[in-house]
Structure formats: structure tokens, C-alpha cells
Specification:
single chain; 71 residues; alpha+beta; two-stranded parallel sheet
Length: 71
């Protein structure tokens, strides 16, 4: 278990994002902290990302995703 996990600019590229966040939570020691960043203002029409960019997050969706798992 880890006291801190850093996950930067990755979750939008994972199809099963709910499970990914649950696994990040599972990796934390009790009282541990997840430092995660997700794109808020990003250009997603770049053809280089078309095949791998699954999600665009809003403040509401991020709160719900992390709240479902972290409480």
C-alpha cells in the first residue's frame, strides 16, 4: 500500500475508468492520498488521439467518479 499515488493526465485514456480509479483507491494505505489530474481544457480533435482518448471530464463528472469510490 502507498501513502501517495500520483496519476497525471492518464484517466481519459483508460476505457474502464471506474475500475481504474477503484484500483488506485485500493493501492492506497489507510489515509493515503491520490493526486490525480485530468484534462479540463484540451484539444481532442487532434487525429493522433482519436483512437485512444475515451473520456472528457467535467467538474461534475469528476466529482461523481471519485465520490463514488472515495466517498
Amino acid at each position: 500500500a502507498f501513502d501517495c499515488v500520483v496519476c497525471t493526465q492518464t484517466l481519459q485514456l483508460i476505457y474502464d475508468v471506474h475500475t481504474a480509479v477503484a484500483q488506485l483507491h485500493r493501492a492506497l494505505a489507510p489515509g493515503g492520498v491520490l493526486l490525480a489530474t485530468i484534462p479540463g481544457l484540451s484539444q481532442i480533435d487532434d487525429p493522433g488521439w482519436m483512437e485512444s482518448w475515451y473520456w472528457a471530464f467535467t467538474q461534475h463528472s469528476a466529482r461523481r467518479l471519485f465520490g463514488d469510490i472515495f466517498g
